[in-house]
Amino acid sequence: MTRSSSIASQPHAAYTAETNPYEAMMKRFDVAAAKLELDPGLYKILRTPVREVTVSIPVALDNGHLEVFTGYRVLHNIARGPGKGGIRYAPTVTIEEVKALAAWMTWKCAVANIPFGGAKGGVICDPSRLSLGELERITRRYTAEIMDMLGPEKDVPAPDMNTNEQTMAWIMDTYSMHVRHTVTAVVTGKPVALCGSRGRREATGRGIMLIAREAAKKRKMKLKGARVVVQGFGNVGSIGAELMEAHGAKIVGVSDIRCGLFNKAGINMKKLLQYGAKHKFIEGFPGAGKVSNSELLELPCDILVPAATENQITSENAGQIKAKIIVEGANGPTTAEADAILNAKGVLVVPDILANAGGVTVSYFEWVQDRMGWFWKESEVNERLEDILVASFYDVDEMARSHKVNMRIGAYMLGMSRVAQNTKTRGIYA
Ligand code: NAD
User: Fold this and answer.
1) Which of 150, 148, 151, 117 is nearest to 46 (CA)?
2) 339 lines ligand 1 (CB under 6 A)
């Protein structure tokens, strides 16, 4: 295999019935639909994406060869507003994953009660093996290929795994070049200097800290002094860990894709962040012992934050999880089969569509600020974020308690009922 073909596509381990992300979403959707006694017609509308697009992305590599990458954009639902959802770059991207992530965005925006629908995008590529120039060319051509779908009133992307502020700046610039004027509100998660929002980079991690705090209260525990394990040391995991430590938690375990670290006395986040920035990975950090990623999830702790990727807690390891609370930083880290096991053990699982909604909430603030041309102080952003997330936590809790379901099904029920209500009130255009 040449270098170019291996970076454009890699065989993805086949999903099982348990790990297919779209099926995992649908299993919870079906339970929530039954509990809501959702009208059969609305059931069909809510489960079906509005649009699914696959594009070919021809790109000239630095070595002069041409390669063709595959990209997706799925618009799941627009009943409550424009599509909203990140763009992911990874060799493991599949259309099933993008469809699931788009649907989760629909429910997440509805749970946070912000005026967006759900969307998601992805490009099959291995960013660790691409130069900055190659990434820029992929991003610009991908944007041009899905150009018709995008726009502040249509579909507004944001960063996700392996994409960042720079990626958003390239998308904003490409879109703006096509429409002949600068349109900052076409993406969120931009650099602050390019009309991004203060506090957006930290927003998902900040949300994790706030939700962990509320979940601890619900369990009659305190975040202060709680032992926390975080899987994934990227945007969500590293900032979430840093903020939880700042609020008195002891981060006893962390991992990235290469390895896990454990120190029951606590790992110093400031030092680990400095080490990670210097070495790119956390492997070799002197302040902790090494564990595997699977051992990490089973470490003794009070709060576990999976903040890496899907299917990390499955029927294989759920029985061995020792945490009392799981706060899902990643999307889809727990399978439906694992949910049942964790439920039976009495573990409180705060689902992704609530726990990691901090990012999209501040993305909403960024979109509002861009459209107003008036930018808020970071303290205002953080205050409004806290208001929305804390209210959403108790809305979900109330739904779960009144229907005697767990928080995940409660969150699906809340999100789906809001989307169903809007769909019904708007009526079906024919
Ligand atoms: P990122 O690319 O910044 O970081 C991902 C981290 O996870 C890295 O440390 C990476 O090494 C690690 N990782 C990847 N695969 C792993 C594996 N199999 N095992 C262990 N570690 C692994 O990504 P991010 O933006 O932090 O996103 C992480 C998760 O959070 C994703 O599921 C994403 O969809 C979700 N999320 C992100 C945001 C956001 O604002 N960035 C918002 C909501 C949800």
Assistant:
1) 117
2) no
Instruction: Please report the DSSP string for 220-235 in residue order.
Output: T--STT-EEEEE--SH
Looking from the CA of 151 toward its CB, the CA atoms found within 13 Å total 9
Say if 400 falls within a structural domain: no
Cβ neighbors of 30 (< 8 A, separation 6 or more) are none
8 Cβ closer than 6 Å to some ligand 1 atom: no
Tell me which of 309, 311, 327 to substitute to probe ligand 1's pocket, judged by most ligand atoms within 8 Å of the beta carbon: 309
Are residues 211 and 351 both part of a single domain? yes
- How do residues 130-187 score in pLDDT, each as one tens digit? 999 999 999 999 999 999 999 999 999 999 999 999 999 999 999 999 999 999 999 9
Instruction: Let me know: does 254 contact 287? Beta carbons within 8 Å.
Output: no
Tell whether 179 and 210 lie within a shared domain.
no
- In the reported structure, the alpha carbon of residue 327 is separated from the centroid of ligand 1 by a whole-number distance in angstroms of 14
- Residue ending a domain, among 355, 374, 406, is 355
Which domain does 330 fall in, by range?
Answer: 201-355
Q: How many helices (H) and strands (E) does the chain have?
A: 15, 12
- Best of 211, 236, 259, 328 for a ligand 1 pocket test (most atoms within 8 Å of beta carbon): 236
Tell me: pLDDT of 15 over 80.
Answer: yes
How many A from CA of 65 to the centre of ligand 1? 30
Q: Please write the tens of the pLDDT for every residue from 277-314.
A: 999 999 999 989 999 999 999 999 999 999 999 999 99
Both 130 and 171 in a single domain?
yes
Q: Return d(Cα 154, Cα 157) in angstroms, integer.
A: 10
Checking if the pLDDT of 1 tops 50, the result is no
What tokens appear for 270 in the block?
């400031």
What is the model's pLDDT at position 380?
98
Query: Mean pLDDT across the chain, nearest whole number?
Result: 96
Cα 34 vs. chain centroid, distance in angstroms? 26
